[in-house]
Amino acid sequence: IDMNLVDAQQARRVLDRMVGYRISPLLWAKVKRGLSAGRVQSVALRLVADREEEINAFIPEEYWTLDVILKIKGEKRPLTAKFYGTDQ
């Protein structure tokens, strides 16, 4: 048995209990009964909340492409033209 892995697991267990057992009751008292917090859960929720803020702050901008294939009489190969633009 790798004792370093055992020690790491025990440290995670202690941290889970310290965070979860102390913060969850605060959430019940201050926010809503039944909510929970944890070492990993709290970080994951923060990532989701940050991404939601980015999505809500997004301002769409018009952007489009125009691809044209031109066939010219007497030419074997068509001419391809591409344009990329915005509304400006």
TrEMBL record:
SUPFAM superfamilies: Prokaryotic type I DNA topoisomerase. InterPro entries: Topo_IA, Topo_IA_2, Topo_IA_cen, Topo_IA_cen_sub1, Topo_IA_cen_sub2, Topo_IA_core_domain. Pfam families: Topoisom_bac. Signal peptide: none annotated. Residues 2-88 form the Topo IA-type catalytic domain. Keywords: Isomerase. One of its GO terms (molecular function) is DNA binding. One of its GO terms (biological process) is DNA topological change. This is Omega-protein. It comes from Cloacibacillus evryensis.
